[in-house]
DNA sequence: AAGTGGTCTAGACCACCGA
DNA sequence: CGGTGGTCTAGACCACTTT
């Protein structure tokens, strides 16, 4: 099939063996950049793992791990007896564990926020179940309108347990919810999402500047921190002409 | 924090060291079952990797890999200096690389299919780009109505390169597209998906037995095989009251 | 100080593929 | 047959968290 395998060794001349950045990560991130930039072309075959290890002065497991990272991202394909190839076809960014705010920032749009409401309410049955708290216990409810480049994009309704009720409106106007949580030492580790669609209610249509009864893209999410405790339950709706969810799936 | 770590050793008494099933997979799948069934409760702390390895007669890397599988699935959380814990909160199934047909089968619904059209057409610009073929080259276009339990759920429009034009209508009525491709030795490895929403066109509304102009959940997908070649480009729409996409995201 | 997971090494044997 | 990735071993050192 493909004739000579490629390995741009010059990209890996200055690996840092003393710093805190893992070797496999240094290799995989540089390799990823080389692929995304086209420096290594689509369909190219990589050298085998052992020779790469020899050239880089790394053990095979370390090289394997670096390659595996990119296989998991859908950039490379490995086949036993054949070798490792760069996937053909453009690669889209997977849905990551970030907030809409960061999504927009990353794509060079100017995110804006308006806090619509910010109040402590007793948890109803749904909220209590999602957040694993008692029915009737106090939770913080926030509702925000998120926009970009002057257009409203989404209405975000979030519920947080009592311990986060001191998040202020000013905080929320300036930063994304996940950024604020991170700044308080809370790391979101796992999230369960459910994506669907429905008609816009009248107030939602007005806020999003779209037709009443028109289609909205919806996302429900429960997010958990490192220790597995529920941190946030959210119920969001997006203007489908301005937002969509993109994923790369990789079969194992 | 959590007092005594747990390890239900009795679940791992008969590991098969000779068969084709990897040891790490045997361990991780049994562990997964024990967690999903509640045999190991939510929030429980697991024993450390080295003692597990000793008890099972496995090396630490093998045990680590088994655990890592479940971390990636969002069932376990590892923290340095702390240990490994079962995540609290229910875990939903991630979006997997399967077709709608298999999704429905797995959830014990009775999938039905009606092939609406099945024809060879020249590729327009969009299709040609997605499938990496020349504009104007022949591609197979199929349009199917998928239902479950008597209700129409989705309209599936798919485009496949020339080499698959011999897929017949009878095949497609009986099985899912991905099943048919697998039977021909084609494995889908990577897919890029984009999920959004829009209004239903009149013909779609009639087919799906829903309101004209009502909301539809949409998904566009390009799927690639082992070698990275584009195998299928699809444009689907779903009744949002009967279908949604569920995902578990895990931060790395 | 003790215990945990995170990384890394230097081998080994096997299954699968192509020539 | 030789070359490839897939799995597995038995160690090692380190960073981080709790006691």
Provide keyphrases for this structure.
alpha+beta, 6-stranded antiparallel beta sheet, 8 helices
Oligomer category: homodimer
Beta-strand segment tally of chain A: 10
Order of helices and strands of chain A: HEHHEEHEHEEHHEHEEE
**Molecular shape of chain A:** elongated
- Average pLDDT of chain A, rounded to a whole number, is 88
Distance between the termini of chain A: 24 Å
What is the percentage of strand-forming residues of chain A?
A: 25-35%
Largest sheet entry of chain A: 6 strands, antiparallel
Structural Rg of chain A: 23 Å
Number of helices of chain A: 8
By secondary-structure content and strand pairing, the structural class of chain A works out as alpha+beta
**Which sequence of strands runs across the widest sheet of chain A?**
4-5-6-9-8-7
Most residues in contact: chain pair: A-B, 54 and 54 residues
What's the topology here?
The structure is a homodimer of 252-residue chains.
Chain A: H1 23-36, E1 45-46, H2 49-56, H3 60-72, E2 76-79, E3 83-86, H4 100-106, E4 111-122, H5 125-131, E5 138-148, E6 151-161, H6 169-174, H7 177-183, E7 188-199, H8 202-208, E8 215-225, E9 230-238, E10 245-250
Antiparallel strand pairs in A: 1-3, 2-3, 4-5, 5-6, 6-9, 7-8, 8-9
Helix pairs in contact in A: 1-3, 2-3
Chain A binds a DNA duplex (19 and 19 nucleotides) through helix 3.
